[in-house]
Automatic annotation (TrEMBL):
Belongs to the cytochrome P450 family. InterPro entries: Cyt_P450_B, Cyt_P450_sf. This is Cytochrome P450. It comes from the Bacteria. Residues 1-20 are annotated as: Disordered.
Length: 422
């Protein structure tokens, strides 16, 4: 087996369809694959649970695929930091300042960019905000929003469940919590899609996204209201406008993208997996079990960026150097043969040991509101669009390009239009 240094030549198996610039498998190739599990297994066979991959042309990193190895990283801030100022390739100029990886990987002065005491100070406002969200009120609001969206296309007998439904729900739901009007919420969408795509437009998309939120924050200072923006402005742990803004960035960006993907992948699975759909429709499983199945198969964050080693160490049999970038392969860890037997049905066992929301100090603070929004969105679509069928070959469902996530770009469906009213 190779020693694991990503500067060394990979084995023949990993060079199949590998990047011509590094000889390593591009991370974006995995997320774009119709079956990432095959590529994860190939990497495991060649490298073990920690494999070198290409983050963008010419930039290397480690993909951590072992459940136990991710637990080690996520629980050890003293060795594996979220602070990208420790990234050796960035400091050495290998990663350009205008890199498409920037919005997702570069340091930000927010809860994601800090560890230890400073992280806990910045994390407390987010936890406080989530604890004050009324789940019943949120569910009613989302159900009303979803019903309105369905009413807008139901008479046609066909729709794209991404652009006409799923893409709007989490943004409008989360924006509403922050007191952001609908029109502004839609303006945030374009910036966020570019940000998570990590392409040439990601830096510009991130700038637009932050500019819109800054305007919302300043407007709320002059017109206080009972919403989450005002709660952040008045929170004693946040010391200046930059910290307030970055807290808004974290809550809205993470809450939007991950919830959109959770909704989209659950609807996709219900439309393409007769076994699961039959069990849900037959009452043997509930919507929550279907949501859990998605968190096992296609979690909202396929690859979670990023930890940076603070000193030379060893992980999963690989030699990790100080400053190396490590990506948490959440989807890969969910299929780790050390925790799941091949073919095992997690939902049948009520197993929620998936890593869909990561773990440790940096785990997602909004998993409960995200489940409320996703459950309401999926239930509304299934209830109000009976007889809904996919209007495309499942193998032809395209994915939005991203090294981090796997979100269907479109999900065209057909269904019987509702009876005309007199």
């Amino acid at each position: 087996m190779p020693s694991g240094d990503p500067t060394e030549h990979p084995t023949p198996a990993t060079t199949e369809r590998a990047s011509c610039t590094t000889g390593l498998m591009p991370l974006s190739q995995i997320t774009a694959s119709s079956d990432p599990a095959v590529l994860y297994q190939r990497l495991r066979n060649d490298w073990g649970p920690v494999a070198p991959v290409e983050l963008e042309p010419g930039v290397r990193g480690w993909l951590v695929m072992g459940w136990a190895d991710i637990k080690i990283i996520a629980s050890n801030e003293a060795l594996y930091s979220r602070d990208a100022r420790n990234w050796r390739d960035l400091k050495n100029g290998i990663v350009a300042q205008d890199s498409g990886l920037g919005p997702m990987m570069f340091w930000r002065a927010n809860v994601i960019g800090h560890d230890g005491r400073e992280h806990r100070r910045l994390r407390a406002p987010l936890d406080d905000l989530v604890s004050h969200i009324d789940p019943r009120r949120l569910r009613r609001s989302v159900e009303s929003l979803c019903t309105d969206l369905v009413s807008g296309f139901a008479a046609r007998g066909k729709a794209d469940l991404i652009s006409e439904y799923a893409a709007s729900i989490p943004m409008l739901a989360v924006a509403g919590l922050f007191g952001i009007e609908t029109r502004t919420g839609f303006q945030l969408l374009a910036g966020l899609m570019a940000l998570f795509g990590s392409g040439d437009d990601s830096q510009a998309g991130n700038a637009d996204f932050e500019a819109i939120l800054a305007n919302v924050m300043h407007a709320r200072r002059s017109r206080p209201a009972d919403d989450l923006t005002h709660a952040l402005i008045t929170h004693p742990n946040l010391r200046n406008d930059d910290e307030i803004l970055q807290s808004m960035v974290v809550m809205i960006s993470a809450g939007y993208e991950t919830t959109l993907i959770w909704i989209a992948q659950t609807l996709r699975l219900m439309l393409t997996d007769p076994r699961l759909a039959g069990r849900v429709n037959g009452g043997r499983l509930g919507i929550d079990e279907a949501l859990d199945e998605v968190l096992w198969r296609d979690p909202p964050m396929t690859h979670m960026p990023t930890r940076f080693a603070l000193r030379d160490t060893e992980l999963g049999g690989r030699s990790i150097r100080a400053g190396d970038a490590l990506v948490l392969g959440l989807a890969a860890a969910n299929s780790d043969p050390q925790i799941r037997t091949s073919g095992e049905s997690a939902v049948s066992l009520g197993n929620r040991s998936y890593l869909a929301f990561s773990m440790g100090p940096h785990q997602c603070p909004s998993r409960d509101p995200a489940r409320v929004i996703t459950r309401a969105a999926v239930e509304t679509a299934l209830t109000r669009l009976p007889g809904m069928k996919l209007d495309i070959d499942p193998a032809q469902i395209p994915l939005r390009p991203s090294p981090w996530t796997r979100c269907p770009a479109v999900l065209p469906v057909v269904f019987p239009p509702p009876p005309a009213t007199a």
